Amino acid sequence: MAEAALRQLQLDVLHIIPTGQAWHKQRPLTPVQHRLAMTQLAFAAMDRVKVDPRETLREGPSYTVETLLELRDEYPAAQLFLIVGEDQAQALPTWYRWAEITKLAIICVAARAVPMGTGGTICQQFLAQPGFQRLDMPLVDVSATDIRRQLATQQSVAPLVLEPVARYIDYHLLYRSA
């Protein structure tokens, strides 16, 4: 998704921002130091990509609108893009101050390989609205939930996760079932 965004949107820099305290997650998140380290390993070799820890440094819940406001202040002349998967685009109306998000950034939606719902993909529904754009990329039939499930049952995730990240997960015994 990052490679497609850099190419298609002609970005000067792509901020990869691991969430801090996710307000919308029911399950406990992997400790922030591990999520940040895995993100840094995953994107270390990519030009024009910056792993941005700002949300992990905040106290309290992380809200995308606050991050976008900070980025707008840092880059006042820039067009901001928010790159999300189709599952997150579908949930967008439940996000904190979501209407403001659509005014701060163009929402770029990467479709999933398996359409969500029965009325076509949410990507198609959003693309009819101003401020939304499709991120063209090969469809990938995998999710973080699938990867965590495979890791919990000690199945290989080698083709789904970069080797340095897979080694980190294995070394720190992350996502293992109790």
Q: Care to describe what's here?
A:
The protein has helices at 2-9, 32-43, 54-57, 64-74, 86-91, 98-104, 122-127, 144-152, 163-171; strands at residues 14-16, 21-22, 49-51, 61-62, 81-85, 106-110, 132-134. The protein is 40% helix and 13% strand. Helix 2 runs antiparallel to helix 9 and helix 4 (64-74) runs parallel beside helix 6. The model is unreliable at 114-120 (pLDDT under 50). The radius of gyration is 17 Å and the shape is globular. The strands form 3 sheets. Strands 5-6-7 form a 3-stranded parallel beta sheet. The protein has 178 residues and is an alpha/beta fold. The protein folds into 2 domains: 2-141, HUPs (Rossmann fold); 142-178, no CATH class.
Low-confidence stretches: 114-120
Widest sheet, order of strands:
5-6-7
The largest β sheet comes out as: 3 strands, parallel
Give the CATH level 1 class of the largest domain: Alpha Beta
Number of spatially distinct domains: 2
Shape: globular
Q: What's the count of strands? A: 7
The appropriate CATH architecture of the largest domain is 3-Layer(aba) Sandwich
Please count the helical segments.
9
Mean pLDDT figure: 85
CATH level 3 topology of the largest domain: Rossmann fold
CATH superfamily of the largest domain: HUPs
> How much helix, percentage-wise, in residues?
40-55%
Radius of gyration: 17 Å
Structural class: alpha/beta
Strand content: 5-15%
**Topology order in helix (H) and strand (E) letters:** HEEHEHEHEHHEHEHH
| Spatial gap, N to C terminus | 32 Å
